[in-house]
Design a protein that fits this description.
The complex is a heterodimer. Chain A is an alpha/beta fold. Helix content of chain A is 38%, strand content 18%. In chain A, strands 3-2-4-5-7-6-12 form a seven-stranded mixed sheet, with helices on both faces. A five-stranded mixed sheet of chain A has the order 9-11-10-13-14, with helices on both faces. In chain A, strands 1-8 form a two-stranded antiparallel sheet. In chain A, strand 6, helix 8 and strand 7 form a beta-alpha-beta unit. In chain A, helix 1 runs parallel beside helix 8, helix 4 runs parallel beside helix 6 and helix 9 crosses helix 13. The longest helix of chain A is centred in the first third of the chain and has 15 residues. The radius of gyration of chain A is 19 Å and the shape is globular. By secondary structure, chain B is an alpha/beta fold. Chain B contains ten helices and five strands. In chain B, helix 6 links the parallel strand 2 and strand 3. In chain B, helix 1 packs across helix 3, helix 1 crosses helix 4 and helix 1 packs antiparallel against helix 10. Chain B starts with a helix and ends with a helix. Classes of the chains: A alpha/beta, B alpha/beta. At the A-B interface, helix 4 and helix 6 of A face helix 5 and helix 6 of B.
Chain lengths: 341, 272
């Protein structure tokens, strides 16, 4: 039997609540949003502290530039919108007005991943983590649940330098009761020796369920919460490689440039081991309920179990493998499967 | 610093000489826009702006952002002669290890209020600074200099709409309207006129001036301080390459450095 979780608030709700808390204790905390404050949950801050809340309208580029200017003048701006709009539309400004001058801006997106559901691919962000990781100096984190999101938001405010946090739309499993989640670290949730599952965001709960299912089949999986994608906890990854020798990395993000990529890069450099990714393949998703989409696009604990069995088989064997059977079905026909490019 | 009109003209000439020398020594850069903005920079740094070179981080200082970052040779010259750094380093422009980067870079010169070079960014950053100054009850002013070609960037109009709607009275945008961009005349690429009308429609107080008439420049910039309830757009009509006959009004000189021989001729025209 796999464990069951209580459903807790969405990580975006945790963000909104923590912002209000920060606003009360730190007069330098200010918020900029681009007409999505009811969805990003910054509206609560706006109601409590109207003079420190700037709703710029539907103009993400201007919003990020304003955040850079506010930070330049000693404020601690939290800058929010949907992940796809904030990062993609504001990218030049994230680069020029924030990352390059190393301004103290906290970029907190909501609606990361495909689990936003019915609104469809134009609103679903599968590229943001990769884009943010390439900006020098940014800390990049993907919280799994309410407690972790709250800690990371507080930590972002206390940190000197740019931070990106990706929150999500749906209510998510409560993984933690509380705790400390320092940047640059991973949290080990289960011990195991046959393989290591690294996951973040809503895939952490799925990783724990997969751990339980694998245990029933005699496979023990170490589970690491990779909530901080950058800087990566290379020490935890290397140790896991030496002690378990195989990896599954699970994330609600494109195969390219997210947690899977940075873990693979770390392994290749420090302690090579076979790795499988459970992620969004090289395709956009579609409309549907969050659960339907997570199942169709391969982001559930059963997908992690399948990948885990595959990677355990590869241990000690050839590290190159054929494309998984049926994997090409996930991509639309016009797009090449990642193993073919 | 509060120089007379004649003294400001001399500063502008010095800025032009430095810019030509620096760009020629670097072998690359943007002479056209560096020359067109020189009078505006002289007026700002030697008369209009409140600032203290001995205390570059003074909280009460006016903030200046060169959003058209490619015009930085003239800015570096103005700041050097104002006392922010030794004019002797001006010839190191664009050289490895020099603080005088090819486009303004705060990491090397903290007195620069923004790192720019990707066009369209400066006005939004200026708005953020202007908001922060109001929150801190400062009466300091934010000055953002834009290029005319830069005004083709959508972000400029996001920012312009925002500043007008929010009645940001502590903000002045100065457009160095030299009518040239890299590929051709602005009017042949994407016309901007009526440029003042666009800002006015977004609730800005608009002043249109001859950007090479020093008395007019000073008057407009000083007037902009007194405007209440609205941001101020100073549309400064200028001439690309101003002061060097063979560079004037020729878009070719937007982003090409003069050869040694051309630089000598240019400097001779500038009285060197």
């Amino acid at each position: 039997m796999v464990r069951e979780f209580t459903l807790g608030p969405a990580t975006r709700e945790a963000y909104g609540a923590t912002l209000v808390e920060l606003g009360k204790t730190n007069p330098n905390v200010v918020v900029v949003d681009a007409d999505l404050s009811k969805s990003t949950y910054t509206a609560k801050f706006g109601k409590e502290f109207p003079d420190r809340f700037f709703n710029v309208g539907i103009a993400e580029a201007n919003m990020v530039g304003i955040a850079g200017g506010l930070a330049h003048s000693g404020k601690i701006p939290f800058c929010s919108s949907f992940a796809c709009f904030l990062v993609n539309k504001g990218y030049d400004q994230l680069r020029i007005a924030v990352a390059y001058p190393r301004e103290n801006v906290k970029v907190v997106s909501s609606h990361g991943g495909i689990s936003i559901g019915e609104d469809g691919p134009s609103q679903q962000s599968i590229e943001d983590v990769a884009l943010m990781c390439t900006l020098p100096g940014f800390v990049v984190c993907v919280p799994a649940d309410e407690a972790q999101a709250k800690d990371l938001v507080r930590r972002a405010a206390a940190h000197q330098g740019p931070v990106y946090l990706r929150t999500g739309r749906p209510k998510v499993a409560k993984v933690y009761d509380g705790g400390e989640f320092p940047f640059g670290k991973m949290r080990q949730l289960e011990e195991g020796t046959d393989l290591t599952i690294v996951a973040n965001g809503l895939m952490v709960a799925e990783a724990l369920k997969a751990h339980d299912a694998l245990k029933e089949e005699g496979i023990t999986a170490r589970v690491l919460d990779g909530y901080c994608v950058k800087p990566l906890d290379a020490e935890a990854v290397t140790r896991a490689s030496l002690e378990t020798g195989a990896f599954v990395v699970a994330e609600e993000h494109s195969r390219f440039g997210g947690l899977g990529s940075v873990v693979a890069q770390c392994l290749a450099q420090h302690a090579p081991a076979p790795i499988e990714q459970v992620c969004v393949e090289d395709t956009y998703a579609e409309s549907g309920s969050p659960q339907q989409l997570l199942e169709k696009y391969g982001l559930t604990w059963t997908h992690i179990v399948t990948a885990a069995k595959r990677v355990v088989q590869r241990k000690g064997g050839p590290t190159r493998r054929e494309p998984p059977a049926g994997a090409a079905d996930k991509a639309t026909e016009s797009e090449p499967h990642p193993f073919e490019v | 610093m509060s120089l007379t009109i004649d003294e400001l003209k001399a500063k502008a000439l010095q800025i032009r000489r430095d810019a030509i020398g620096m760009i020629a020594a670097a072998g690359s850069g943007h002479p056209g826009g560096s020359l067109s903005e020189a009078d505006l920079l002289a007026a700002l740094w030697f008369r209009v702006m409140k600032h203290d070179p001995k205390n570059p981080q003074w909280a009460g200082r006016d903030r200046f952002i060169l959003s058209k970052g490619h015009g930085c040779p003239s800015l570096y010259s103005a700041m050097a002669h104002a006392g922010y750094f030794d004019p002797a380093i001006l010839p190191t422009l664009r050289k490895l290890g020099s603080p005088l980067q090819g486009h303004p870079d705060r990491r090397f010169i903290p007195a620069l209020e923004a790192s720019t070079g990707s066009l369209g960014n400066g006005l939004s950053i200026g708005i953020g600074i202007a908001h922060a100054l109001k929150l801190d009850r400062s009466d300091a002013r934010v000055w953002v200099m834009l290029g005319d070609g830069e005004c083709q960037e959508g972000q400029v109009w996001e920012a312009s709409m925002y500043a007008g709607a929010h009645r940001m009275e502590n903000l002045t945008a100065i457009v160095d309207y030299n009518k040239k961009q890299l590929d051709d005349m602005v009017k042949h690429i994407l016309p901007l006129d009526p440029l003042g009308g666009k800002f006015a429609a977004m609730n800005w107080h608009v002043l249109e001036i001859d950007g090479h008439n020093m008395a007019m420049v000073v008057e407009a910039l000083e007037e902009s301080r007194k405007v209440k309830g609205r941001p101020v757009a100073v549309i400064a009509h200028t001439i690309t390459g101003k002061g060097v006959s063979f560079m004037e009004n020729d878009p070719k000189w937007h982003g090409v450095a003069p050869t040694k021989e051309e630089a000598t001729r240019a400097l001779a025209e500038l009285g060197v």
